Automatic annotation (TrEMBL):
SUPFAM superfamilies, alphabetized: Periplasmic binding protein-like I
Keyword annotations from UniProtKB, A to Z: Signal
Domain called Periplasmic binding protein: residue spans: 40-304
Identification of the protein by name: Substrate-binding domain-containing protein
Signal sequence residues: 1-23
Main localization (coarse): other
Matches recorded under InterPro entries: Bact_Solute-Bind_Prot2 (IPR050555), Peripla_BP_I (IPR028082), SBP_2_dom (IPR025997)
Organism: Micromonospora fiedleri
Length: 365
């Protein structure tokens, strides 16, 4: 059953078209009448900074394109900026009508977008805004709201645990990801007033290059050492970084005592939450993001213009980019079940081994 919080995420974009032909990952096909069948290229960033890209985004985008009967070619740059550019070049050569990218940084993202534009290929920034870029649309979540939920979540968990004057460590996302800046803006809006008033202290504030989970563990280990173990709460920008912090806390017998935040509702994070090792995560209904982006891509491919009713300011390019921004939701132990009910992850992925009992206790049936 659909839960209330999921409805909030809906935006006023149209339902996907009702074409019946199936999409195909390979080759070009001649379309009827007015030339080629639209073909959409998508470049995902990696498969290690978050499991979402391969397990959710690829799946939901492919489903949306197939349902609309358009061809698609979805590839993953695996964190390699050169590969990213090569994939884009190949897609353009192979005749994509629209290119959708999740940039690895704004510099290479901009180069790809500008090249596509010069070849008459329409572009969409998917999830991450390319600063100074030239995409026709930006489709994402309200990323400042994501950060606010993380800040509020950490406050809630520290308050519930009655921790006084907590010392907070930040594990921020990649400095090259504009989303990381927005997440921080969100959690700072909640936590900075508490640092300023002396209610909380900030023990550490580090960014994790490329959202690299392995580096995150090393960075968090250094934060713990530097503070003599005096960290009472970890504001981690996503689940991968959070899990890295939890692995270090486990080694120090501190897991469950130090609340850790996250983002993405990864199966592993949901298990960490059920076990009491993670305070919360932020669920982003990626299906809605994929559907909205696919719908805009298909419209662009047909040469149509759709109104999104909203824009986002690109401070580097000094332009307002037409945008769809969806609403995120906070997930605690009590509503882990909603993420499963929404079909984002399965009960089988979360309720394995020792987690089976924790799932039953949390009302996951
Ligand atoms: C996305 C997050 C993801 C992170 C690392 C961000 O841009 O919005 O969902 O966890 O990148 O891949």
């Amino acid at each position: 059953m659909r839960k209330g919080f999921l409805a909030i995420g809906a935006v006023g974009v149209l339902a996907l078209g009702s074409l019946t032909a199936c999409g195909d990952d390979s080759g070009d096909q001649a379309g009827g009448g007015s030339g080629k069948t639209p073909k959409i290229g998508v470049i995902l960033p990696d498969s290690s900074s978050s499991v979402r890209w391969e397990s959710a985004d690829r799946r939901f985008l492919k489903e949306a394109f197939d349902a609309a009967g358009v061809l698609s070619d979805i590839q993953n740059a695996q964190g390699d900026k050169n590969a990213f550019q090569t994939i884009a070049d190949q897609m353009i050569t192979n005749g994509v009508t629209v290119l959708m990218i999740v940039n690895l940084d704004s510099g290479t993202g901009k180069a790809v977008l500008d090249k596509a534009k010069s070849q008459g290929v329409a572009t969409i920034d998917y999830d991450r805004l390319t600063l100074g870029g030239s995409a026709q649309y930006y489709v994402s979540f309200d990323n400042v709201a994501v950060g606010k939920l993380q800040g509020e979540g950490l406050v809630k968990c520290l308050t519930d645990a009655k921790v006084e004057k907590p010392a907070i460590a930040y594990l921020n996302g990649s400095p090259t990801d504009n989303n990381a800046t927005l997440f921080k803006e969100g959690y700072d809006s909640v936590l900075k007033p508490k640092f300023d008033s002396g209610e909380y202290t900030k023990a550490a504030d580090d960014s994790v290059p490329d959202w690299d989970n392995t580096q995150a563990a090393t960075i968090f280990e250094q934060q713990l050492t530097k503070t003599g173990g005096k960290i009472d709460g970890v504001l981690s920008a996503n689940d991968g970084l959070g899990n890295a912090a939890i692995s270090v806390l486990k080694k120090n017998n501190l897991n469950g005592k130090v609340p850790v935040t996250g983002q993405d509702a990864d199966p592993q994070a949901l298990q960490n939450i059920l076990a009491g090792d993670q305070c919360m995560t932020v669920y982003k209904a990626v299906k809605k993001e994929a559907d909205a982006a696919a719908e805009l891509a298909i419209a662009l491919a047909k040469g149509e213009r759709k109104e999104t009713g909203q824009t986002v300011r690109d401070p580097e390019g000094n332009r307002d980019v037409p945008a769809v921004l969806l609403t995120p939701a906070a997930i605690y132990k009590e509503n882990v079940k909603d993420v499963i009910a929404d079909g984002y992850v399965t009960k089988e992925q979360v309720c394995t081994g020792d987690y089976a009992k924790l799932c039953t206790d949390a009302g996951i049936s």
